[in-house]
Amino acid sequence: ATGPAGELLAGPADRAEQRLLGAVAALPSDESAEPYNEAHDAAWHQTRLLLRLHRYAHEVVHGAPDPVLAAPGHALDLHRDAAEAAGA
Q: What is the pTM of this model?
């Protein structure tokens, strides 16, 4: 393959973003949340993974991290930690 990484990865980066947006739209609402619900946690964990993939793709394509993604990433990390603590 030829060309800069940004050009080659623009398509996959766009697909990663679309997958992330779909995962966010599918997250369960707070109203249906129980104190600990493993099925709901799976959707949040998947969203966290997709956010990381999107963040990495953004850094490669645009050459710098998107500061807007830091806060959601931190919130999803806190959720993961809480879910792990609840499951222990």
A: 0.79
